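Why does residue order matter? Because the sequence determines the fold. Keep that principle in mind as you read this record.
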Amino acid sequence: MNFYLPIAEISINIYLLISLGVGIGFISGLFGIGGGFISSPLLILVGIPPSVAVGTTTVQVFASTSTGVISHYQKKNIDYQMGITLVSGGLIGTLCGVLLLNNLKNIGLIDNYLNSIYIVLLLITAIFILYESAKINLIYKNKKLKLHQHSWIHGLPLKFKYRKSKLYISVLAPLSIGFFIGMLTGLTGIGGGFILIPCMIYLLGMKTISVIGTSLFNITLVSFTSLFLQIYINQNIDFILAIFLIVSSSVGAAIASRVIDRFDQENLKVLFGMLLITIASFLLYDLFKTPINLYEINYV
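Structure:
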């Protein structure tokens, strides 16, 4: 049974759509990642226009992170000083990302550029995960950056004291990281937590207990801003598609929570890395395959 998506302007099999949402939720719950990281590439693979995939994924990211940030607020695990600094850079980055997406859409290059970005992100993340799981990084074991160990970041100017994280570092570092994550959110729709969390731990030296809550705080506000910018500038959010994904992915996440204890965590990391490589391979094939219609004539 096909279902028409008004903003995407395509008909899609409703069972495929529900299965996709359940799969995204299951993978997110099983591997502990944000659904936006894989939902945008998967939506593109099933035929959703890239711009709509980005905008709709933003809604999903906001819905999933906003519930998580409430829990961390109650547990007082959020460093609001650091969060506001990250968000300040993120808001500017989001605006730049949304405007860049609009420009790519207008000049007709959005498909190729977004596919290329997703391929690079997926492959880099997969390589990092497999690298870590294979223990190749043992040569760096004794050189691992510890919290509060001085690095080049501590030499930057405009230092500020973040009391909850017990850090005294330059505001330029979290501002730059926030800008980059915001840029990714506006351009690709992903929350960027898989990049933000390692940066907060290893670059900024934050306490692990505050990292996840502060990350969710940042992603929630940035994705909320991106959502409105996407509506205002790109008009690329299909709320019907978003509702289907949010509801079905919640079911998938619930299923994952029931079976996750049956899996070995190290094996899950390897499985996740292979999954990312598989998705990237499909995107790569889609990028270079010969189109069905080499020439197309449009009537205005």
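The CA atoms of residues 56 and 239 lie 7 Å apart.
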